[in-house]
Every structure is written in structure tokens, then in C-alpha cells.
């Protein structure tokens, strides 16, 4: 069935609805992508553009949240990869493996920077420490190890579990704390300074996932069909048991700025809880047992990985007009309820004829797979000045259909000028930039063979180059401002010990050349 092109309204955001159901229903129907085997782990980069890291088989694939296509493929593994996780700045990615080692990658270049060897069995999970260049690995050899990221040196091996250590995390509010969860039913909190166990709680079942609240006061553990909530400040006192799933819970995540708890399970359900009372406010159902999920910091992207290798990516669709209509309807309903009862009066009822919206011309061409004609329609002056969002929406749909190159190929004269004029006018608009940069790259590649044949086209290409240079200069100035602000914030945190300030601590950006061990790693690409 043909689905008409969705044109994002790009209007000022309406006031947020108080209804959690309406909030989570704004997630679009998921795009389903097939991986080669079951998906072990999903992590979404905390930094823009929030790449989706999917660990599957012997590779880690990074998907772009806008196009939902593979952006990068990290395949420097001889055996299965596990638990790939981004650093907070999104520049580095750390993954465990069945090779009894961890590997550190540069996200931008895909270079293998470090290989951490010291475990005797597979490393299933890993984590970055929040305030220094230390990392932690969790292994099936029943231990966790703290490492120096820059030197590959093992700093300390924590011994205390009696079964596989399959999950763990660190605490932003307390950089000296490491948390580990094991199949021996226990979750242990370790003090990095004393190298000792500070707290241990018994979940009562093999522990699959752990989370710590941003303040560091609450510990969430998941195992079997139950989530347990513990008070860390009261010596590990059990606060609550949440039993909303009927099969093993495999993953926990925070959402909505840590105001919501999200769980995924083998029962094919994702459940979202209110953190104030731990009641379920929304349930999402999928086709297969769920092994992992990831959600972006702004809740705009939800990625779910399943046991049959299906990756489901949902994106939030903002519709301010619908929000306003829903609020007005709710107000009218409450007003009617407030009125006193009155007898029914006999009246004439008129049935309003339902109006049908005419299908846009470009959608008619898309339906017939006439991509070039559809693009011609939205390159007219009317769209150029009054409705550029429709043109960008069509570009995005062509990218999704893998038809952009076909639509742009074979253009000459005025047709080329129209495309270039649109790019020049709208390339620097932030809401269009990602899509139009992709279009520019494809179109310039197509024009490369004809460079110098048309003077007008050459002039427009120079104008486009000028716009790109202006944007680069503008972004450079913004980066300087950002650096100044980060320095001010960093200096201010030295005089505050509150959790709200400590949670904003940043990891210093260190330029890491590949180590000798990483350079010598021989890997068969898959």
C-alpha cells in the first residue's frame, strides 16, 4: 500500500501534552532491518547525531538515525562481538568480544586504537568511567577489570562473583563507583579507591541488566521476570519489586531525562514506567523476543534488537497541530462534564460530509516510480520560496527508496540550475542541512564530468561552495564559543560537590594514536 510522503511541519513546538500515552504514541511505526544473527546489544550515542550502535555477530554497525541506513561498519573482530558502547562525547566506541579481549575504536575514522587483553574468557559488557581515562570490562571468567585507556594497562582485577559477570555500569554522580551484575544472583558495588566491595545485594535470579539513577541513590536490577529497586544510601535496602513481564527481562534503560524507566523482555514487550511510583504508563509490542534496546537522550529515536536478528527503529514524529486539537478536545469534554444535567431536546442532526484532501502531484509521480518527474514538481519557484519543507521531504523519501541518484541523473540546463538554486538557498538551514548535504554530495558527483561546459552552472557551483565555506566559518566560531563555555562550566564544578553538577562532568578529549597491539591485530573482515 502506497504511503504518502510525510512533510514535517517545522513549526514552533506546542506545549507538551501531559499524557504519557500520547507522548509515546508519537513514535512512528518501526522500520524493520534484518541483521545476520541475533542482536546482542544496542547503544545510541549521547552526542549528535546520535548514531545507533548495533552489536551483532562479529561486527558493530552504526546506523544513521535520520536515514536509518548503515553509516559505518566496525568489523575488526575474529569472533563474536559483545556490548559495544559509546563514550559520552560520541568519539570513541568500546566493545567486548569472544576473543577474551576488549577493543577501542575511533568512531569517525573506524581505526582500531586499543586492544585490552587480560581476561581468561569472553568479555560481554564494558563501560567508560565518567571523569577519567579509565574503562571497565565484565567477563565470563567471573571478574571485572579496571583499565587505563591510554596505556592499555590493567589497573585492578575485582574478584568476588562466583558465576558469569554479564552486566555492569558506572555512576556519573560518584566517579569512584563501579557496579557489576552476575549470574550468581548478586549485584556488587565496588569502591575504585579502596579496590574493595562496598555493597552487595541478592536479586534472587541471574542478573541480566543493572542501572543506577543519576543521583547515585537508587540501584535497579533486572533478572528473571522481575525488576528490583534498591536504596544504595540505606545499605542496599529493597524498596520495590516490579513484576510486569512474564518472561526474562533482558535490558533496562532510562528515558525522558531519567524520569522514565524502560524494560525489554523475551515476552516481546517493551514497558515504560513512571519513576515516581513504578507504574506502567505504556507498553510497546514487537514480533520477536527482545534482547536489547536503546533510546536517544531526547527520546526521538527508539531502537529495539530481537533474537531473530530484526532491528526495529522508531522515530518520533512531531505534529504540533494534532497536539493542539487533542488538548482542545480534552478541554471541551471536561466542560461538558462540568455542566448540570439537562433533558434531551429533539433536534435535527446534520451529518457533515467528510472532505478528502487532494493527493499532491509529486506523490502521484512517486506512486508510479517516476522519481525525476516528482523532483521536477517540487523544484518550482512556489516550493523554493513558500514550501521548501516539501522538497526536502521528497529528497528524504528518495534517499529512503535509494532513488536519489536516479532522480538527479541526466539533468541539463535549467533543470540543473533549479537544483543548485534550491541547495544554495536552503543548505545552511539547520533543519534541512543533513538531508541537503547528502543531496549535494550525490549531485556534485554527477556533475563532475560536465564541469566547465556551462558557465551558469559553474557560477552556481561557486556560490554553493561559498555557502559551505560560510557555514564552516560559522561552525568554527560556535566551537570556539562552546570551548569557552565548557571551560567556565568545568571551573565552576571544582567548587561544587552536588550530584546535579557532578553529573555534567565531561571526559577530556584525548587524541589517541593506535597502540602497537592494535596495529598488529590481524582480523579477517566479514
Automatic annotation (TrEMBL):
InterPro entries: U3_snoRNA-assocProt_15_C, WD40_rpt. Its main location: nucleus. It comes from the Eukaryota. It is found in: Nucleus. WD repeats lie at residues 116-157, 158-200, 242-283. GO terms for biological process: positive regulation of transcription by RNA polymerase I; rRNA processing. GO terms for cellular component: nucleolus. Residues 348-488 form the U3 small nucleolar RNA-associated protein 15 C-terminal domain. The keyword Zinc-finger does not apply. Ribosome biogenesis factor. Involved in nucleolar processing of pre-18S ribosomal RNA. Required for optimal pre-ribosomal RNA transcription by RNA polymerase I. Part of the small subunit (SSU) processome, first precursor of the small eukaryotic ribosomal subunit. During the assembly of the SSU processome in the nucleolus, many ribosome biogenesis factors, an RNA chaperone and ribosomal proteins associate with the nascent pre-rRNA and work in concert to generate RNA folding, modifications, rearrangements and cleavage as well as targeted degradation of pre-ribosomal RNA by the RNA exosome. This is U3 small nucleolar RNA-associated protein 15 homolog. It comes from Allacma fusca.
Amino acid at each position: 500500500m502506497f504511503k504518502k510522503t510525510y512533510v514535517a511541519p517545522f513549526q514552533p513546538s506546542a506545549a507538551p501534552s501531559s499524557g504519557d500515552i500520547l507522548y509515546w504514541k508519537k513514535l512512528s511505526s518501526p522500520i524493520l532491518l534484518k541483521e545476520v544473527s541475533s542482536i546482542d546489544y544496542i547503544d545510541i550515542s549521547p552526542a549528535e547525531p546520535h548514531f545507533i550502535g548495533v552489536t551483532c555477530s562479529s561486527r558493530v554497525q552504526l546506523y544513521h538515525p535520520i536515514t536509518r541506513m548503515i553509516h559505518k561498519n566496525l568489523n575488526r573482530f575474529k569472533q563474536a562481538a559483545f556490548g559495544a558502547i559509546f563514550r559520552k562525547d560520541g568519539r570513541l566506541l568500546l566493545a567486548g568480544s569472544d576473543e577474551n579481549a576488549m577493543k577501542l575504536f575511533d568512531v569517525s575514522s573506524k581505526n582500531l586504537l586499543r586492544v585490552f587483553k587480560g581476561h581468561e574468557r569472553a568479555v560481554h559488557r564494558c563501560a567508560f568511567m565518567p571523569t577519567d581515562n579509565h574503562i571497565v570490562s565484565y567477563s565470563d571468567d567471573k571478574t571485572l577489570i579496571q583499565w587505563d585507556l591510554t596505556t592499555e594497562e590493567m589497573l585492578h582485577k575485582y574478584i568476588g562473583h562466583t558465576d558469569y559477570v554479564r552486566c555492569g555500569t558506572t555512576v556519573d554522580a560518584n566517579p569512584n563507583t563501579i557496579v557489576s551484575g552476575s549470574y550468581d544472583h548478586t549485584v556488587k558495588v565496588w569502591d575504585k579507591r579502596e579496590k574493595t566491595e562496598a555493597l552487595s545485594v541478592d536479586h534472587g535470579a541471574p542478573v541480566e541488566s543493572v542501572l543506577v539513577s543519576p543521583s547515585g541513590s537508587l540501584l535497579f536490577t533486572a533478572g528473571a521476570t522481575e525488576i528490583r529497586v534498591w536504596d544504595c544510601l540505606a545499605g542496599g535496602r529493597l524498596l520495590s519489586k516490579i513484576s510486569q513481564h512474564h518472561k526474562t527481562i533482558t535490558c533496562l534503560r532510562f528515558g525522558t531525562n531519567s524520569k522514565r524507566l524502560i524494560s525489554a523482555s523475551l515476552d516481546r514487550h517493551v514497558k515504560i514506567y513512571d519513576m515516581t511510583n513504578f507504574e506502567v504508563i505504556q507498553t510497546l509490542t514487537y514480533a520477536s523476543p527482545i534482547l536489547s534496546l536503546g533510546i536517544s537522550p531526547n527520546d526521538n529515536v527508539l531502537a529495539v534488537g530481537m533474537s531473530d536478528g530484526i532491528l526495529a527503529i522508531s522515530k518520533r514524529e512531531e505534529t504540533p497541530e494534532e497536539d493542539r486539537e487533542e488538548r482542545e478536545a480534552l478541554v471541551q469534554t471536561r466542560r461538558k462534564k462540568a455542566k448540570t444535567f439537562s433533558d434531551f431536546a429533539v433536534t435535527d442532526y446534520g451529518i457533515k460530509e467528510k472532505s478528502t484532501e487532494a493527493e499532491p502531484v509529486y506523490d502521484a509521480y512517486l506512486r508510479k516510480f517516476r522519481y525525476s518527474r516528482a523532483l521536477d514538481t517540487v523544484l518550482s519557484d512556489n516550493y523554493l520560496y513558500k514550501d521548501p519543507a516539501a522538497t526536502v521531504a521528497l529528497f528524504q523519501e528518495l534517499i529512503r527508496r535509494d532513488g536519489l541518484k536516479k532522480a538527479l541523473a541526466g539533468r541539463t540546463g535549467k533543470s540543473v540550475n533549479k537544483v543548485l538554486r534550491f541547495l544554495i538557498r536552503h543548505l545552511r538551514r539547520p533543519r534541512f542541512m543533513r538531508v541537503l548535504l547528502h543531496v549535494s554530495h550525490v549531485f556534485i558527483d554527477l556533475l563532475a564530468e560536465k564541469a566547465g561546459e556551462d558557465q551558469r552552472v559553474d557560477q552556481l557551483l561557486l556560490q554553493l561552495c561559498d555557502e559551505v565555506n560560510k557555514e564552516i566559518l560559522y561552525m568554527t566560531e560556535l566551537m570556539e564559543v562552546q570551548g569557552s563555555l565548557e571551560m567556565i562550566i568545568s571551573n565552576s564544578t571544582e567548587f561544587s560537590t552536588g550530584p546535579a553538577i557532578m553529573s555534567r562532568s565531561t571526559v577530556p578529549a584525548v587524541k589517541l594514536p593506535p597502540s602497537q597491539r592494535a596495529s598488529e591485530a590481524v582480523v579477517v573482515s566479514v
